[in-house]
Specification:
By secondary structure, this protein is α+β, with helices and mostly antiparallel strands. The protein is built from 3 helices and 10 strands.
Length: about 220
């Protein structure tokens, strides 16, 4: 009887090499697909916050949701707390790409006269291009993190907060007219920050101020 022929060592090594090559090709594709799904979920969060922001403005005489309001003696109601009555679940305040259940978004304080002082929707010259909420991260370089992280979004020249490029080289943003979209975010080549999200350059092709600056 003929012996049953098995694989030689070389054949096994070739098969293993082929599997390794396929894995190296496919794993990044799978990772990108997973992140695309998380980015879509995050964008949905931003859209829900945009709708909540618009409903808040309708209920409060066209006032933008405030960054925070102080209570006596030393507590604060923060921007996301004002949106809670208008959203279905507090879970949408957590970006799925952070892996954390804590707040993953920040509000653009430059749109206000001050954090306490709201602004009328009618004062925003380009509402469809004016940032109000976006993905946000913290560098860990500021001692006032516990106070500021809940309401502050990194904006030009702010030392501690920034918009991370955590969604396929971009971030999700909500604008003053309520719509949300993904926007490319450039990495800062001079940054030494070594956190999970590299420090970025604030986008200047959108409006940070109610007047339309810096885009206009």
């Amino acid at each position: 009887m003929d012996r049953q022929k098995g694989f030689t060592l070389i054949e096994l090594l070739v098969v293993i090499a082929i599997i390794a090559i396929l894995a190296a090709i496919l794993f990044p594709v799978f990772a990108r697909a997973r992140e695309k799904g998380r980015a879509s979920s995050c964008l949905s969060n931003c859209k829900q916050m945009g709708l909540a922001h618009m409903m808040y403005a309708q209920d409060y005489d066209e006032e933008l949701v405030p960054a925070y309001l102080g209570n006596m003696p030393s507590t604060y109601d923060q921007w996301h707390e004002f949106l809670v009555p208008y959203i279905q679940s507090g879970q949408l305040l957590a970006c799925p790409s952070t892996g954390r259940s804590s707040l993953g978004y920040g509000i653009n304080r430059l749109i206000y006269r001050s954090a306490y002082s709201g602004r009328k929707m009618s004062e925003v010259v380009y509402p469809a291009e004016t940032l109000i909420i976006a993905d946000s991260d913290w560098t860990g370089s500021s001692a006032d993190y516990k106070t500021n992280n809940s309401y502050c979004l990194a904006y030009p020249y702010h030392p501690s907060f920034f918009i991370p490029a955590r969604h396929l080289d971009g971030a999700n943003m909500t604008f003053a007219d309520g719509h949300a979209k993904w926007h490319t975010i450039a990495l800062d080549p001079n940054s030494t920050y070594v956190g999970p999200n590299k420090y970025t350059i604030p986008p200047m092709d959108i409006c940070w101020y109610a007047s339309g600056a810096p885009k206009y």
